Amino acid sequence: MEVILKQDMQNLGQKDEIVKVRDGYARNFLIPQGMATTATASAKKVLAENTKQRAHKEAKVKEEAQKIAEKMNGLKLQIGAKTSTTGKIFGSVNTIQVAEALKDKGYDIDRKNISLVNADTIKEVGSYKARVKLHKEVIFEIDFEIVSE
Hints:
three-stranded antiparallel sheet; alpha+beta; Ribosomal Protein L9, domain 1; Ribosomal Protein L9, domain 2; four-stranded mixed sheet
């Protein structure tokens, strides 16, 4: 029996994929649990149309992410932090401060999409890099500098 998966299933397939399974497995487990639907001709047409529309939307989102990445190319941020006389930061600098600095420059990027390269937190003054993920296929690095206030 062919079924259309409604969610990712390990060892079976990904969401919106048509897979062939045994009749009893489909009728007694997958369909009652809401994990799949039967792959009738009309369901296959609906799936094809939804996939086509989703691909079109994904292309638009990716294109916009690439435009933002091109605008941000070469951007250098400065983040101020309170430091001791030796250059150690009181506390630490993490993705929250990088997201705030980007917001000040006019780019509203969620801190969850920013990761620090080679560090979890920064505790000293200096130059560092952060990786910004705008889309699953559009990831770039941005330079920033920690300066003493």
